Amino acid sequence: MPFLGQDWRSPGWQWVKTEDGWKRCEAFSPALEDENNQLNDISHTVIITGDDEDEEIYSTEDCELAAKKRRKDHFRNNTDSQCFYREKWIYVHKESTRERHGYCTLGEAFNRLDFSSAIQDIRRFNYVVKLLQLIAKSQLTSLSGAAQKNYFNILDKIVQKVMEDQYNPRLIKDLLQDLSSTLCILIRGVGKSVLVGNINIWICRLETILLWQQQLKNLQMNKQVNNGLTLSDLPLHMLNNILYRFSDGWDIITLGQVTPTLYMLSEDRQLWKKLCQYHFAEKQFCRHLIPSEKGHIDWKLMYFALQKCYPTKEQYGDTLHFCRHCSILFWKDTGHPCTASDPNTCLMPVSPQHFIDLFKF
Fold first, then answer.
1. Measuring CA to CA, which residue among 148, 144, 216, 235 is closest to residue 176?
2. pLDDT < 70 stretches in the chain
3. Contact 242/310 with Cβ under 8 angstroms?
4. Residue 191's pLDDT is what?
5. Which ranges does the record mark as transmembrane (predicted)?
6. Alpha carbon of 275 to those of 85, 178, 284, 301: distances in Å?
7. How many angstroms separate the CA atoms of 182 and 247, rounded?
8. Which of 10, 129, 133, 239 is least crowded, fewest Cβ atoms below 10 Å from its Cβ?
């Protein structure tokens, strides 16, 4: 099992035994591995320099130094690069102790938890997008330079996925709107706020965001050609059951625009009443009663009025989990090195806001 700490008793690195002795496992990148292989191939190559064509032979030590410098330049200058780690979990600690020096930052957690792969899983897609939206609103300046690169690389992959799959573009539009608003404020207030990196880089990122917004605005939904059973062919009670399983009012409205039958079902007062009761407490919607022209309560208008005043419940197919015994944050299907007798009793699902709160100091 790998060590969890970084001190004289627990160096925090994972070691592998080879024929040449023990070697440390480092963060890896496929592109960087190819570059290092090319560099190793020329470890004893004769290089011609100067007008007098003197020969200079590089030693193995020189090549190792060149490889280290190449690795640093790769991660520093290549904006498309991203750090990958073998373990998809991170130990969360907020202060230094005798066993562990330093603390875990939001940017470090963002780099370690492999959000780039998580967006390909439809169960985690909404979760990652919501997390990126919360970071855009309040935690963007707390990200390190490497974490910023990862953030925008993941955002780029999300936009491209939406353009290809046309999956939930409204959610991405809200994210980009919040991110552009935050960047406009930070760029105008440069000098007053802390922005890691050159101001021109942030201006280029803002221009990229505006381009993404334009692409999503021009996105045309492809009409699927299907000669089999369609949504309109289902009986009314099944369509009604589908609507009752939605937890977002905008999804209900969007589905109601498909056919006149679905529109009629989406305007059901009982449907919107159930939605209000699911998201809000009785004391909350009793303060915002909105009667209709017929004297009944307009639950649809109430839902959107309450949404502006109170947070709604969040539903995700899969979330990050936190082990209270080990203080480790991880994806449940990847697991973590837990030492508890019954690990399942120590697990706690982590909402996007809770993820942000874990790294506030």
1. 216
2. 1-14, 24-86, 94-103, 189-194, 223-227, 288, 290-295, 361
3. no
4. 56
5. none
6. 41, 26, 13, 12
7. 28
8. 10
Does residue 121 contact residue 318 with C-beta atoms inside 8 Å?
yes
CA–CA separation, 349 and 353 (whole Å): 12
* Alpha-carbon distances, residue 57 vs 35, 45, 46, 47, 49 (angstroms): 20, 7, 5, 7, 11
Tell me the torsion sign for CA atoms 182, 187, 193, 195. positive
Q: Where are the domains of the chain?
A: 106-220+316-358, 248-309
Residue 243: the pLDDT is 92
pLDDT in tens, 207-242: 999 999 999 888 877 766 666 777 888 889 999 999
- Report field, pTM of the whole predicted structure over 0.90: no
Backbone angles phi, psi at 236, to 5 degrees: -60, -40
Query: Would you state the structure tokens that stand for residue 258, as one six-digit string?
Result: 């498909």
| Residue 117 CB neighbour total at 10 angstroms | 15
Please name every residue paired with 293 in a beta bridge, in sequence order, or none if there are none.
Answer: none
Q: What is the pLDDT of residue 1?
A: 45
| Residue whose token pair is 């899969």 | 318
Query: Which contiguous run of DSSP H or E holds residue 128?
Result: helix 122-134
Q: Which residues of 241-256 are buried (b: 16+ CB within 10 A; e: fewer)?
A: eebeebebbeebeebb
